[in-house]
Amino acid sequence: MWAASLLALAHGLLQAAPVAPSVRAEIDGLMAAMQASNCQFNRNGSWYEAAEAKAHLLRKLEYLEGKDMVKTTEQFIERAASTSSSSGKPYLVRCGGAAAQASQPWLSAQLQLLRAKPAAGR
């Protein structure tokens, strides 16, 4: 019984893997862009500063990595950074005096900007 439990645990640990370094670099770039933007992030009806949003999204990433559910940056945006896993409500981003918008298109646009930068500028 003990050996079977240990084997099951080991199997689960072997399946869970961190995202590829190139994907992690893009996710880190997105989080840095969000933090530098001074935008606010709405989660379940409350507004948070970018640093708090970053910490929350990285915790969600860690959870999803444990389930081997993130292989691309787009999956991170879709599965971790678009909606609340507890309420199902979409996350929002508000920058300056602009109207709030859904986080998914905002992060997708930031990803496109990040990818458009020359490699030397990253």
Automatic annotation (TrEMBL):
Pfam families in alphabetical order = DUF5329
- Signal peptide start and end residues: 1-16
Enumerate the UniProt keywords alphabetically. Answer: Signal
Matching InterPro entries: DUF5329 (IPR035242)
The protein here is known as DUF5329 domain-containing protein
- In its UniProt entry, the species of origin is given as Roseateles aquae
